[in-house]
Amino acid sequence: MRKHNPNLTPFAKELRKSMTKQERKLWYQFLRSYRVRFLRQKVIGKYIVDFYCARAKLVIELDGSQHFEEAAIEYDNKRTSALAEFGIDVIRFSNSEVDREFDAVCQKIEVEVTRRVESPRP
What pTM did the predictor assign? Predict the structure, then answer.
């Protein structure tokens, strides 16, 4: 799998302009000024991920209700496996977690990034 599909770049730019309420909240209230750089709507292979930290090799996905349907779960699992081929891990949060448990979401991201940055995997 190629690391980047340039055909997806215009779509990724459009997604940056039309982030969901939860994506905007996580970006503007936490990730935008986070100590380790995150990118939004990053093209990796044939996918566009919500948030990506290259240094931690970590993708953060925010999932709406459509992600809990059987076909979407299967697609998300395939996508996670494809990203793993690049050595990238994915952590997922539901939109309701961002809405109701924002501090806990931020804390989990902090723990995951710290673990990966301070103890990088081979």
Answer: 0.83
Is residue 63 within 8 Å of 107, Cβ to Cβ? no
Contact 44, 83 (CB under 8 A): yes
CATH code of the domain occupying 6-118: 3.40.960.10
Only one residue has tokens 């931020």, namely: 106
Give the integer Cα–Cα distance in Å for 85 and 2: 10
Q: What phi and psi values does residue 87 have, to the nearest 5 degrees?
A: 80, 20
User: What is the DSSP annotation of 76-119?
Assistant: HHHHHHHHHTTT-EEEEEEHHHHHH-HHHHHHHHHHHHHHHHHS
pLDDT in tens, 9-62: 655 566 667 688 999 999 999 999 999 999 998 888 888 899 999 999 999 999
Provide the residue ranges of all domains of the chain, joining segments of one domain with +. 6-118
Q: How many CB atoms lie within 10 A of CB 59?
A: 23
